[in-house]
Specification:
The complex is a heterodimer of chains A (about 325) and B (about 700). With about 325 residues, chain A is mainly alpha-helical. Helices cover about 75% and strands about 0% of the residues of chain A. In chain A, helix 6 crosses helix 7 and helix 8 runs antiparallel to helix 9. In chain B, helix 17 runs antiparallel to helix 19 and helix 23 runs antiparallel to helix 24. The longest helix of chain B has 20 residues. The chains are: A mainly alpha (about 325), B alpha+beta (about 700).
Amino acid sequence: MWPFIFRNLLQRLVLLVIVSVIAHSVVHLAPGEPSEVDPANPRMKPEDIVKIREAFHLDDPLYLQYAYWMRDLLTGELKSFKDSQPVLPKIWERFLNSLPLFIVATLIIWTLSFPTGIHAAIRRGSAYDRSTTFVAYTLISVPGFFLSYLVILWVVEWLGVPVIGMRTFGMEEAHWAFRGMDRVWHLVMPSLMSALAGIAVLSRYVRSQMLEVIGQDYVRTARAKGLDEDTVVYRHALRNALLPFVTMFGFLLPGLIGGSVIFEQIFAWPGLGRLGYDAILSRDFPVILTINFIAAALTLAGTFISDILYAVVDPRIRLE
Amino acid sequence: MTLRLKWLLIIAPVVLVLALFQSVFWVPTYEAQTTGNPARLEKFIEASIGDAKILNPILNADTASSGIVDKVFEGLLDLDENLNLRGRLATDWTVTETAYLAVNPRAYFPDGSPVTTGELETRIRRAVTDGTLNSLQDNLIDIRLQPAHERTESISLRSEDDTAISVTVDLHVPERVEFRLRKVDQDFFKRLEVIIGDDYASSAPYDSWIEVEPTNKRNLVAPRFAELLPVFEHNPIIRFNLRNGVHFHDGHEFDAGDVKFTYEAIMDPKNLSPRTSDFEPIKSVRIIAPHVVEVIYKRLFSPAINAWSMGILPEHLLNEDAMRQEMDRRGLSETAREAFGMRDSEFNRKPIGFGPFKFVKWQSDEMIHLTRNDDYWEGPPLYKDYFYRIIPDALTQEVEFRTGAIDTYGTLPHQVARYTDDPAYQSYSSLGLGFTYIGYSNRHPILKDKRVRRALGMAVNVDEIIKYVLYGEGERITGPYPKNTQWYDATVLPLPYDPMAAEALLGEAGWRKNADGWLEKDGQLLEFNLITNNGNLVRKAVLTIAQNNWRKIGIKCNTQLFEWAVLLKDFINPGKFDAVVLGWSMGVDPDLYQIWHSSESGPNQLNFVGYNNPVADDLIVRIRREYDVATQRELTHRLHAVIADDQPYSFLFAPRGTRVLDKKIVMVDEEGKLSRLKQTKTGSIFFYFNRWKKLEHAVEL
């Protein structure tokens, strides 16, 4: 197993470099200039723009720019074009904002999908199964942003409470319990909305896994032994059906950095997704590239972990 | 165990959902903003689409940052409610002039005798006393002779192969006659023509006055000789008397040193300030006394005074010592220290100024928090806290507004109607400083004909655009100035919407309808492309409506949308387009040089339509050299009429902006009397922000 791990890590490292090179070229070749050197700004004189371009290394050949970026990234001195702040602390700060949203959304997805999916699989073809199928496909098809707007409008019209942002402003002097609960409430809407599609997909997945397993011989054997239905379903069937979900845990990792641009934008959540999105709009190359780099690294790490996990939980699989 | 797993699968989600949703009962609603939280009334919360970038008055260039910077910092001057300059950190100021006339040994007096220093001085002095130069007498303080001297300058320019190079220029400044004047007079040297003749400058011996190093670059610098060492030099001088006893938020007292420091910081190339062009005309800034500062300009450039409304920086926190301390504290590496400029300082994220509000906290993309400056020289504002909330989506901004979580936001045109009649809100409408137009390329073979442009303008139904696209939130405009400034000439009438007359006018220009109904001349269709940027719904609608309106009278117009960056790079900057729908957002000063002067029509310049009218050029230059407001107004009105007549753009409309606020917000005057919020001449309500207060219950006023 160790040689496998070593070889695999090396491959991934090479892949990471390739990804970073491609990302760097794509970002730089796309049309548009960083907004700091935008020639449409009437306040800027050509001389100033030349100076700024020089400071940003914008006129150097691409491979040199890549080298500068890597050097600054690795020495931790990479600065954003937009506000000259160091990039890594900036990303870390946003990451901490996105984290609660990610955790609550993941909790909602994983706790809600399993009961719905299992139940639908056991009562295959029932009215419940058909209606959950319908709801699931509706949720998958309706764009999340559209649904979010509807829900926001509905909540504001009927409950009259604020739902945008990480907290209600102007409550700094209120009791801590109010402030804490206010933060929880502001988490509910965005995490629920970003979880909806996830619930729909994952519960479908649970359902089909369960259906597959329930049709297996060993389940029939278990039933034939005279075990009660709950034991058959939750002990014999479910445990085997869970196997593929181990892989999915690995895929959660890149979700940490990707954030959800759309929901962070709608709910004015100052998270990573928005940082990336704004960076793209203002062509803030260091920020775009670094987020992209971390995302690539996490994706590679995620698939690596799930490979390993899979081998650990499923004795039939060997890593060679 | 199986049973427990089954129940766990059911109980876990139920508990989670209940735990999450119960929190709704703890959150304040619109009606109950103050229950359990009375401090809410002392806080003003404003929503913005975008976050600030950099909180430093000399470095910021975006509206969000400027909004915050204006509250934390203060300039020497600002504009009062009628858009006239008003003293802030400067109590008052005077504008005088020193003019220099270089002695040109190669020139001849009108009577044919050669010019010498002695003769020149004698003749001028005689003319002043004997009444030949009557017009000068009131303005002239004294005349002196300035001895010849040397000066070295280093200038950067673009070489033949378009790379940036730097050359050294040695200037041998000849003897000059110095005139001190009471007020600026742009025609001063014209008045001297009775003595020196009207061709005095053309023979200036620049070969002996100017040396360029390296010498082979001399021809590149040559076009700038007259600018580097003018024969006639105007040096306007502004003397500011500064306010005593004003303190920065950290307690340090403000003095003339801070003004000089701010100027030097802008001009320091390391700081990459986007405002250098505003301060470039300055020759020097001199401290006369601790609270008196004198700014000497290189040439006549009247808009330059407006630049002093920019916030003044605290020298003691940003000078070299302070920067060195910051670098030490942050433990920066050698390479980082070398490149370290004001742009990298932490000051830009926690600024200290002397404005009505002090900076507290900035959480990127979430909010900026300011608190009242109790020592503000004009008296502290009534609000205790100011929050700038970043909500990147216009729809959710409105939703937050309705829950009372924000006090105001930039309302979209279609939302305005919901609030104007609702008694729970108050709204204030004002005309913006920007406008939307269709610009026609002067290089286009068809569109360079003024009659065609006029006909195109007459065929577009602008009133309909305002009514249906802007929901009435706009006004027609006829020229290049913002409608609510004094520079705009209200007597210029808009083009009437008259397709018939437009057709007739095109007929006059030789365009006849062919068999298919399209206009044609010499076998060529009246056809061109109209483009704009993607993502601006109003411009997109204008594009479609114009296309449709023109089609009705037989003009073939093809439309296309491009991403902003592509539009600029491939079409606007190189000037390769036929017609374009765009907008300008204008300042309040009357200088239109960059947008309308013919010298600014090259690639990457703002006169991308290539407008070229010598009369307009002359007016534009006179306006920026005029220091008397009444004369300026007269000139801008003439310029407005000239441009409106040429129709280089179809000037469409200036959008109105409406501010919607909670009705509980009122204004309190010095005696404590409550009134509705007051608007300035431009319609802004925030001018009086420091007198605003939020009541617990709305009252009828």
